[in-house]
């Protein structure tokens, strides 16, 4: 069931990219290999073309779902892009799905540990953004002076 929801979310996001971004290619070369998806996505990220980068990661996830070692990386990059776009709620949900995979997926042994560590760090940052610490009365008083 979770897999179906994730696939639906991926396809919905990919569909929305077709509608919202004219710079997304109409089609991708069917001979494009896995490395090219990551290379093109990274180049798009470097130029802040987030929708284009998302597009490459989304198509990668549909074309190569069996490469668990790299799909977790593509999922992490997607979540990171949404974080950079300040879509904190959606980004948080994606990072939580990644952590859930590390805990519950039979393929977790194939996942590089770095995405788990980085996902936790960014979830902490999102929590700080969404729930800033309340200032104490002493801090408030010193600001008004």
Automatic annotation (TrEMBL):
Database matches in InterPro entries: TPR-like_helical_dom_sf (IPR011990)
Protein name: Tetratricopeptide (TPR) repeat protein
PROSITE patterns, per the entry: PROKAR_LIPOPROTEIN (PS51257)
Keywords: Signal
Lineage of the organism: Bacteria, Pseudomonadati, Spirochaetota, Spirochaetia, Spirochaetales
Signal peptide stretch: 1-26
Keyword Glycoprotein included in the entry's annotation: no
């Amino acid at each position: 069931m979770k897999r179906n929801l994730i696939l639906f979310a991926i396809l919905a996001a990919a569909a929305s990219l077709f509608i919202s971004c004219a710079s997304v290619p109409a089609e991708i070369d069917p001979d494009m290999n896995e490395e090219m998806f990551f290379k093109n996505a990274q180049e798009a990220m470097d130029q802040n073309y987030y929708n284009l980068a998302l597009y490459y990661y989304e198509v990668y996830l549909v074309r190569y779902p069996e490469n668990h070692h790299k799909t977790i990386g593509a999922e992490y990059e997607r979540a990171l892009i949404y974080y950079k776009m300040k879509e904190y709620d959606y980004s948080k949900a994606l990072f939580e799905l990644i952590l859930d995979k590390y805990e519950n997926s039979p393929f977790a042994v194939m996942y590089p540990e770095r995405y788990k560590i980085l996902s936790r760090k960014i979830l902490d940052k999102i929590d700080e953004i969404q729930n800033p610490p309340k200032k104490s009365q002493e801090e408030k008083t010193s600001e008004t002076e």
